[in-house]
Design a protein that fits this description.
Helix content is 79%, strand content 3%. It is mainly α. Strands 1-2 form a two-stranded antiparallel sheet. It is globular and about 60 Å long.
């Protein structure tokens, strides 16, 4: 299993790096739209959303991604129309009003959880493709350090009810990995960024990626599944790979927009 994970990563990572860094913005949007659809599909599959509600939710997710990326002034219109459509479908498809809120919770949460958070990566890409690499590489450094420190020194559980394997030591490792990754990437990708800003971004990404990871674990535990899917051999699903960056992406964008730039 470990060798399969390494083989997949060795093939995909250089291709993704070149795709993000060398191709125009529109190609990144295509990639983001595909990831959004897959992530949202996995979320709906975990919660057994099916039929018209599922496809209306997926169409709404793409519409929200497009509106936020290319017509920001129409975003609230598209979001409101999506919510109205999904509610109307529930009204017409099922004659009973019983469990209507339960039936609507997953479809509506899905359009906020995947496209609603991933769209900030389109905004990051507009600032510069290097920030997408910075985001994912820092989250990876955070996750890796959390894993090795947690495995070597972790005793006290961080949040046993949601993720039994995560430890307090691993959480500190996530913060350390975020800082080390951000400082190294600053030198390579964004040298104009000051060292204090890089350290701040690393700390925040290290912290918020833990939250994103725990939230996906919360959903999986609630849905009774181990992985969001098996679409990536040896790695699980799309949501399993982007759970930390789902939350880190918006926060990094806010830091660049409102604090640092």
């Amino acid at each position: 299993m470990h060798s399969k994970r390494l083989a997949v990563a060795a093939v995909l990572l250089p291709l993704l790096y070149l795709y993000i860094m060398r191709l125009p913005m529109v190609y990144f949007f295509y990639l983001l739209a595909a990831v959004t659809l897959l992530a949202q599909w996995e979320f709906y599959s975990m919660y057994r959303v099916s039929g018209l509600l599922k496809y209306a939710g997926l169409a709404s997710g793409v519409a929200i991604l497009c509106a936020s990326s290319y017509a920001g002034d129409r975003l609230m219109t598209v979001l409101s129309a999506s919510v109205m459509m999904i509610m109307a479908i529930r009204l017409l498809v099922k004659k009973t009003p019983l469990y209507s809120l339960h039936d609507l919770a997953a479809p509506l949460t899905g359009i906020l959880y995947a496209p609603g958070l991933l769209v900030f990566q389109a905004h990051l890409r507009r600032i510069g493709p290097e920030w997408i690499i910075f985001l994912y590489a820092t989250v990876w450094a955070s996750d890796s350090m959390a894993y090795y420190i947690g495995k070597g020194y972790g005793k006290k559980k961080l949040y046993r009810e949601v993720s039994p394997n995560k430890t307090v030591a691993g959480a500190f490792g996530s913060l350390l990995g975020g800082v080390l990754g951000a400082v190294l990437l600053k030198a390579i990708l964004v040298p104009a960024t000051g060292l204090p800003q890089a350290i701040s971004m690393g700390l925040v990404i290290g912290f918020i990626s833990i939250i994103g990871d725990l939230i996906e674990s919360m959903f999986k535990r609630d849905a009774g599944v181990k992985d969001s899917s098996i679409i990536i051999p040896g790695h699980g699903g799309i949501l399993d790979k982007i759970d930390g960056s789902l939350f880190a992406g918006p926060v990094l964008y806010w830091m660049l927009t409102f604090i640092i730039i």
